[in-house]
Amino acid sequence: MLKIFYFAGLRERLGQGSEELELPAGVGDVAALRDLLAARGGAWESLATLQNLRYAVNQQMARPDSPLRAGDEVAFFPPVTGG
User: Fold this and answer.
1) How many other C-beta atoms can be found within 10 angstroms of the C-beta atom of residue 12?
2) Does the model's pTM come out above 0.90?
3) Are 19 and 35 in contact (CB under 8 A)?
4) Which CATH architecture has domain 2-77?
């Protein structure tokens, strides 16, 4: 089971801040998970098209090729600017 979190504008766009998902066979890294979620269509497609989307696995910054294992916590968040 994965615990997935969505932050900032992404959370608003998707209408949820988190979910739990059984780690599907063939999903071995963050990019594969992102693509699986984006395939839901609609607002979910933004996971694949949003430029500079950031990732974290187990509260550590991650890359799209970072491996995933059952029990991991994955976060998706858009780039944040401040002033």
Assistant:
1) 12
2) yes
3) no
4) Roll (3.10)
